[in-house]
Every structure is written in C-alpha cells, then in structure tokens.
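The protein record passed on below.

***
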Amino acid sequence: MTPMEILALLVIGTVAGFINVLSAGGSMLTLPLLIFLGLSPQVANGTNRVSIVLQSVSAVASFLRAGARHVGLSLRLSVPAVLGSLLGTWLALQVSDALFEAVLITVMVGSALVMLLPQPRLETRPLTAERLTPAIYLAMFGIGVYGGFLQVGVGILFIVVLYRMLKIDLAQVNAFKVLIILMYTLPALAIFVYHDQVRWGYGLVLAAGSMLGAWVGVKVNVSARGALWVKRLTIIVIVAIILRLLLG
C-alpha cells in the first residue's frame, strides 16, 4: 500500500464508522474504495468485513459503557441473523465479479433513494420479549442473508424492522444494530478468510479508521439538523461513487 492509499483508507474508514453508528451507509463508501484500490469485488467484499467486525466491537463496547440495555434481546435477534448470514456469505462466493458489481450498483442506487425519504415520526415504546414475533425473527433472518451477501445499506433494513415494525426509538435501534451486525459478521468473515478472500493489510487499516469513527459516533450527540447534513453529504459521496462505478 502507498501512503496515499493508507490515508484514503483511514479517512474513509473514519467517516464510514461514524455514519454506521448514527444511521446507515458506511459500507457504501468502504466497499467501492477497496475496489477502486485494485481489489477484486469478491476480495473487497471479504476484506470489508474486517472493518465491520472491529468497528462493531468498538461501538458495542462504547454503547455498553454508556448503559445500553436489552443485551439478551439483542442476542436473541442475532440467532436468525447469524443463520441467514451463513447462507448469504455462501451465495456471495458463488456469483461472478461482474454480477456482484451490478448488484452493488443497484443496491447503492436503491439505498441512496431510500435515504432521501423522510423518516416517519412514530410513537416508540420499550422492547419486551413478548413483542418478538415469528415475523420479526424471519425479518432478522432476511437481514442476515443480505448482510452476509453484501452488507451495503444493511442499516436501512434494521431501521425498517426495529424502528418501523417494533417501534423502538432510534437511539436504541443503533445499540441493537451494532451488536447484531457483530454477531452475524463474525462467521461471515471466517468463511471469507477460509476462502482466501480477505486482504488483512487493507482491512486492518480501514478498521482503524472505522473504529475511531464508531467511537466518535457513540460519543457525539448530533442534533437533528446535524444528522440531516451528515445524510446529505453521505448521499452526495454515494452518487459520486455510483457514477465512478458506472463509468469504470
């Protein structure tokens, strides 16, 4: 890696970690970056998991120190997500690089459009075990399949399931999200490592930035207006990346 590549990995990793904790979309920056740096789409997909695991560890530790609750419920939601991620990771290893890039571009366009939609204001309530219906477990399995396959924009799916379906407040959604992502990404990363689809140098440098960004994201209290600007800037960068991917 050149000094400029290391700098790019650190900067984009920090931004991605910050975004992932506060909302969603970090992998829409990191995965294309790894491809732009010369990794094949499949290897970039595997290498990106190093960053996701370590930034999730950082975020989970910070949330627990900040008094996050319902760890047991998070672990229960993680079980179907882990099972789904095993299937999703297997599928990711079967597709060609060309098909993977086509899926990546499609998902990034769709995720950017979803991020533009206004977030509805819902009456939220605390989560209890009785509210974890079979439909919720099935939805978590689907998120696991998707996360194991691609991960890009998975935070948007968590907002749909946890905020819109379960009506948990967004602060609690973020705490649930990072723990569940950590649990299902660990086996996915192990599978990618087994198939030699991980470049540790790139992954660890990217992870260093992501862990810093995740730590800042947990510590910083971003106002509603500030969060809106974060979303807008993220979308601008995502559009630029989509154009770069389309133009080769």
